[in-house]
Amino acid sequence: MTRTPLDEVSCSIARTVNVLSDAWSWLIVRDTYLGVNRFDDYVADLGITRRVLSRRLSELVEAQILKKQLYASGPDRFDYLLTEKGAELVPLLAVLAQWGDRWEPSPGGPPIIFEHGECGPIQAVVACSCCAEALSAENVAATAGPGGTAGPGTALIGRLLAAQRSQKEVFPPEHGS
């Protein structure tokens, strides 16, 4: 099955999904974070075919989420390591695990527990950088950004955000609001 490329869609979510295209990509990032770094170990842990794994690893290296580090020559063998860009996905893994533990629980309880330093097990919270209030669908609003346009993948939301941007230009926020 051919995937529709989303790398040119005017949406940060679409471009992120384009890079982390399927469950295997997320599981490879998870495994790499947890210390699985070699091709045969990914195969053994995930039960993924060698062909699919090779493709996903190449995509993750190309996207600079993973980097290859040579550990043996003739034939060349590599460890796969998280880059800085890849490491920024780790908090998302904690949020995904927490969501899964709540809505798609394992019968025996959480299969992985994320801990923070001396604090111990965490309750992952996505919070406002200003006031630290936990974010939710009820208290967050999406507004037009400067790069939003109507086009493939954003035909409707691009128009909605553009109308919102025009509305702000007609009725600018009052000073101090």
TrEMBL record:
UniProt keyword annotation of Protein biosynthesis present: no
Gene3D superfamilies reported for this sequence: Winged helix-like DNA-binding domain superfamily/Winged helix DNA-binding domain
Domain of life: Bacteria
Gene Ontology terms, MF aspect: DNA binding
Record PROSITE patterns: HTH_HXLR
SUPFAM superfamilies: Winged helix' DNA-binding domain (SSF46785)
Keyword set, alphabetical order: DNA-binding, Transcription, Transcription regulation
UniProt domain HTH hxlR-type: residue ranges: 11-108
Pfam families the record matches: HxlR
Stated name of the protein: DNA-binding HxlR family transcriptional regulator
